[in-house]
Amino acid sequence: MAKFGLNFLKPTERFNGNWSVLQDKSREWEKMYRERWSHDKVVRTTHGVNCTGSCSWKVFVKNGVITWEDQQIDYASCGPDMPELEPRGC
To answer: Cofactors per UniProt (predicted)?
Structure first.
């Protein structure tokens, strides 16, 4: 059975009282991470023809593709004696 160890770890320069480590790795992945929620436009819509409640959704679109959606919560109030109907969605 082979011995496993931490031989692949190498000491690095430390600073700030040994609380930080400098790395030379690429950080290109961070751009994708930051842009994952980016969008071109926001439209208001319902889910479909079978949605009997016609619940309102805020849909975020990027390059013509829906990237994510959020329930709208701006319906009119039912009054002080009734519970509110929001958020509502399929």
So the answer is: Mo-bis(molybdopterin guanine dinucleotide)
